[in-house]
Amino acid sequence: MSGAISQMIERGRQGCLLLHGFSGSPLEMVPMAETLAEEGWTVAVAELAGHASPAALARVHWHDWITSAEDAYRALTDRCEGVAVAGLSMGGAVALALASTLQPAAVVAISTPVRLKRLLAGASRLASRLLPYAPVVVKLGPRVREMRPYRSPTRRIPLRATAEVEHLLDAMRAALPRVRAPLLIAQGRRDWVIPRESAREIASLAAQAEPQVLWLPRSGHVATLDRDRELLFREVKAFLRIHLSA
User: Fold this and answer.
1) Fewest C-beta in 10 Å: which of 82, 101, 133, 220?
2) CA distances from 182 to 15, 53, 210 (A)
3) In sequence order, what are the residues at sequence separation of 6 or more whose Cβ sits closer than 8 angstroms to the Cβ of residue 140?
4) How many domains does the chain have?
5) Where are the beta strands (DSSP E) in 40-93?
6) Could you please report the per-residue DSSP string of 129-156?
7) Residue-wise pLDDT tens for the chain (246 aa)?
8) pTM
């Protein structure tokens, strides 16, 4: 198993690679992985570079995240005839950047920002000079408390790494006109973390002629663990059935 792959559920000859978000962990993709594996697909969950600890995250550069995903993708293609890629938040940006150079069967971008909010980006750049780490604020509603075991254990993030996220999003926007793979974009209506126009802007920039956009009415940013997760998983499965055969 590739060092970039945290978990693999081996099933058939069609596969799906799942990528977690910034300061997150593979855990936040496990419920989705288990659901997709029910379709007979082999599902791998990657751990992106630097996410073993906050100190490690402070040392990585944005292209290290893409390299992690590429390594996991190639390991999965050694086992599978076709591979789709799905990512949450920053993982969605990595998936889109990867799709501009490789040939995935399909791409799913969940809660993926087209850019950082201006206030967040500016404050992070200023604060990183004064304060190396900031606390992670996690809010899961009462209906999703059962999903808390899947949340990342990380409770602080290196603010320097937010600048690397900005560089990654720059690279993603530049790559989108080369993304021709079938594309599903999902975004929560209650996601305050990313710009509201993200899903539509990604759809407009991608080379894919007819990207699908799925709005999740009751979900915030970590949509794979939120109230509409069953709707999300159902729609992702329906989308991938068209492009992957068990």
Assistant:
1) 101
2) 15, 34, 8
3) 147, 148, 151, 222, 225, 226
4) 1
5) 42-46, 82-88
6) HH-SEEEPP----GGGGGGGGGS----E
7) 455 899 999 999 999 999 999 988 999 999 999 999 999 999 999 999 988 887 888 899 999 999 999 999 999 999 999 999 999 999 999 999 999 999 899 999 999 999 986 544 444 554 445 455 555 555 555 456 677 677 766 567 778 888 899 999 999 999 999 999 999 999 999 998 898 899 999 999 999 879 999 999 999 999 999 999 999 999 999 999 999 975
8) 0.90
Instruction: Give the domain extent around 140.
Output: 5-243
Q: How far is CA 217 from the centre of its chain?
A: 19
Q: Is 233 helix (H, G, I), strand (E, B) or coil?
A: helix
Per the CB < 8 A criterion, the answer to whether 112 and 45 are in contact is: no
CATH number of the domain within which 238 lies: 3.40.50.1820
Strand partners for 86: 18, 108
How does strand 133-135 pair with strand 183-188?
Answer: unpaired
Rounded CA-CA distance 18/33 in Å is 7
Neighbour tally for 192: CB within 10 Å: 10
| Inter-CA distances, 35 with 29, 41, 43, 216, Å | 10, 10, 10, 18
| CB proximity list for 135: less than 8 A, separation 6 or greater | 155, 156
Contact 7, 27 (CB under 8 A): no
